[in-house]
Amino acid sequence: MRVKKSFFAFDIGNSNITAGIFLGERLLRRVNIPTARAENCGAVLRNIGIKDAEGMIVCSVVPAATRSLCRCLRLCCPLKPVVVGGGGTVVPIKNLYKKPKETGQDRLINAYAAAKLFGAPLICVDLGTTVTFDAVSARGEYLGGMIFPGMDMQLRALCGGTALLPKVKLRAPSGLLGKRTQDGMLNGVVRGTAAVCDGLCAGMKKQLAGKAAVIGTGGDIRLISRYTRVFDRIEPELTLRGLRMLYEYYNNRAGSGLVE
């Protein structure tokens, strides 16, 4: 009987590389690697068992980190990683962006995966280094969206752009009216971002005839979901699951040969 091996999906973001380790459809584990360490992540890759991978796929918004990670993967594993957007591996969704190449691959993967899992029309909100809002039509077309600063980025901007505001770690605020400067900053950023989600999703729903489900994902989705009821579904690992789905889509096509 053939023993199943693990499949690895890598989502390279501006702050972290998130590695998802799958056995079949089940996500066994996720590991975060600072994107700044992409060039020297071989030890981490070996520790998570990359040598015995049955397949690997990489999605990235940081080209330099993509090159560094792929070099490390080739040194640690005999398989060649599949890179989304390269070598003909594109997300199979009609992209109505005026300049389709400008669209982040992670946004397309989220849209593709959400539509497959939950149906369309939909709005996908990804809360990470940035907050992205993406719309998919009832016909499954990627319509575009919006980009907003992430909560940690907002806190850093408040500290870096002022003389007296302190450095504050992102966390849940306590009470609506902050009694300390740190509390006021957290309230403004966290509750403000929740209000942005409410307002922008309401406007996008009107564009989509008001029937679109709102799917929330990203590293900060658990935090923000306490302060808004806009999300119909929470899927923190949507990008990783979408990468696995995309790999299977190509690998199951006749003659695709992604598995080497």
Structural account:
- This protein is 34% helix and 23% strand.
- By secondary structure, it is α/β, with parallel strands linked by helices.
- It folds into two domains: 7-83, Nucleotidyltransferase, domain 5 (2-Layer Sandwich), CATH 3.30.420; 100-241, ATPase, nucleotide binding domain (Nucleotidyltransferase, domain 5, 2-Layer Sandwich).
- The strands form two sheets. It has a five-stranded mixed beta sheet with strand order 3-2-1-4-5, sandwiched between helices. A five-stranded mixed beta sheet has the order 8-7-6-9-10, with helices on both faces.
- Strand 2 and strand 3 form a beta hairpin.
- Helix 3 (105-118) packs across helix 7 (238-251) and helix 4 (151-160) crosses helix 5.
- The longest helix is centred in the last third of the chain and has 27 residues, at 181-207.
- It starts with 6 loop residues before the first strand and ends in a 9-residue tail after the last helix.
- The model is unreliable at 254-260 (pLDDT under 50).
N/C terminus separation = 20 Å
Give the strand line-up of the largest sheet.
3-2-1-4-5
What value does the average pLDDT take?
92
CATH architecture of the largest domain: 2-Layer Sandwich
